[in-house]
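User: Hi! Is it possible to get a structure for several chains at once, not just one? Here's what I have:
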Amino acid sequence: MDSEGASSESSSSGDQLEKWTEEQDQLKKKLIAYDDFSWKLSSSMELSQGSEMLKYVGGVDMSFCKEDSSLACACLIVLELPSLRVVHHDFSLLRLHVPYVPGFLAFREILQKMRDDKHPFYPQVLMVDGNGILHPRGFGLACHLGVLAHLPTIGVGKNLHHVDGLNQSEVRRSLQLKENEHEQVITLVGNSGFTWGVGFRPTLSSLKPIYVSVGHRISLDSAVKIVKMTCKYRVPEPIRQADMRSRAYLQEHQTESFKRTGTVTTGSD
DNA sequence: GCGACAG
DNA sequence: ATCTTGTCGC
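Assistant: Yes, the chains can be modeled jointly so their relative placement is included. Here is the combined structure:
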């Protein structure tokens, strides 16, 4: 039932990439890089009568099937602050003809549905396994999803891409110098003077930093605060949970189809 | 034991 | 992105 244009079988991948870049540039105009939400972050400001607190933090991640690289699982989880208890999860199994990115938009559907249903655990902010504005064109996955879902999003990367003169070893050197300081955070200012995000070590034991950047409708300060609040381990809980669960879901799906067919679903025999 | 990290 | 194995260290 694939309604692919039989006319352009070879250039479709290139076309999609171009379209994607165009869409990024369009959506980028709608990006909001400051706090644009009504809830409050910390309970220290108890004077904030009437305004709700941040309680539900979402996280998204995708895992890929080892045997069948076109099969992926998108997972959204919502956890509750300050307990970090997961109160909601949802999965979406998808087939990808082209890598990664279009599949990521499955999250938009999941979120849309939650909102339409007035789901009690609809997240107030969403953490994305991938960068926000810390991106070659200043518009990573976290921004993309944020703008599409009109939700505050935070980008969390595990590696630093080379943008504006930033590099991983430099960050780690700077962090090294801060060894004795309480704050294990360094601001990522590029050669241009632009602040792209921060690199920081969430726990004492994590030598390798994570990279936090603005996704949408949030300031870098707030983003970092929220990431800190959810870091039990190196990878913040919302993403860690989404990662583990999407992986487990694929695994189950695999063994389940193995029990049915009595064979691995590679189809390459 | 579990997490970080190697490669 | 995925897997596995092993070491180190709290």
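The two ends of chain A are 24 Å apart (CA to CA). The first strand of chain A starts at residue 56 and ends at 64.

User: Great, thank you!
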